[in-house]
Amino acid sequence: MWMYLGLLAALFLGLHNLCKKHALQGNEVFPVLFGTIGAGFLLLLPFFIGSFFYPDEFKNLGFYITQIPWKTHGFIFIKSMIMAASWVLAYQALKHLPITIVTPIRSAGPFFTFIGAILIYHEKPNILQWIGFFLIILSVILYSKIGKKEGINFKRNKWIFAIIGATFLGASSGLYDKFLIQNLALNPQTLQFWFSWYTLLILLIILSITWFPFPQKRKAFEWRWTIAAVGFLLVAADYFYFKALQDPDALIMLLSAIKRSQLIIAVVIGGIVFKEKNKRKKLVPLAGILIGVFLILYS
Fold first, then answer.
1. Res. 148: pLDDT tops 60
2. Which residues contact 130 (CB under 8 A, 6 or more apart)?
3. pLDDT digits over 188-200, tens only?
């Protein structure tokens, strides 16, 4: 069952990436990020209020947000700091790079998760899983060669380093999620609500330094419906992902790989919608990544 929940998370993540590209085009990065997290928080707020006033009803619905100790709040705040840094880097990179370059590099995230799952959680891969993960990495390298034809030098372009950093931090957060869900026994909606709240506070501090004091930047920001859509889709994706992690048999290394099937939406549909270059050539490494994911699932 947890694998199917992972596929649902991938579906919403693919749609989330398309909306994110539209929200960021020619727009200010930090207020867009704040708007997406804020939209997700507002979506979760009724569950928090309902859990306070009508706890029995929300427990029956399966959306009860539990009371947690301050120590647990501290663990969630750490996740918020990791993901805030990851998103800041990823949003900046997505603003300056084609989605068909950014998304495949992000797909290398399972490799970092794979290593962490072995070292931290002692998950044991088999031969097909090894082949699948290295096939993903080789496909990402092939993407770098295609990217050079679009004027993107992978050694000198700072946004490439930004998306690599974002990918590493995102993978670290994925490993941390397993600890939060299984070791601390947090349910998905509780983790999502407090994570969104602390992330908003962090972003508010960043905005107060980099955006609020500058009138030109404030005027450059344009509200778009896709900003809210990104927040809603991310909440849906995370909810199914965290539900999958609640299964004690769930393997974080496989879940991370399953989520990469969002590439079908992000690269194929995104390449058509945003009319990016070399779409046919990018289908070759895309196929490599999908084969790698298939091998992991099949194993």
1. no
2. none
3. 999 999 999 999 9
Closest CA to 5 of 286, 265, 266, 249: 249
| Angle formed at CA 145 by CA 143 and CA 151, multiple of 5 degrees | 105
What pLDDT was estimated at residue 284? Answer: 79
- For the stretch 244-285, pLDDT in tens is 999 988 888 888 877 777 766 766 676 666 565 556 667 777
Q: Work out the number of other CB atoms within 10 angstroms of the CB of residue 283.
A: 15
Largest CA distance in the chain: 59
DSSP one-letter code for 28: -
In this structure, are residues 58 and 50 in contact, taking their beta carbons and an 8 Å threshold?
yes
Give pLDDT, residue 73. Answer: 97
CB contact at 8 A, 18 and 270? yes
- 126 close to 196: Cβ distance less than 8 angstroms: no
Between CA 222 and CA 244 the distance in angstroms is 36
Q: Is the pTM here over 0.70, yes or no?
A: yes
User: At residue 272, what is the residue type?
Assistant: I
Contacts of 63 (CB under 8 A, 6+ apart): 47, 50, 51, 189
Q: For residues 79 and 173, what is the distance between their CA atoms, to the nearest angstrom? A: 6
Work out whether the CA dihedral 103, 76, 243, 23 comes out positive or negative. negative
SS3 category, 68:
coil
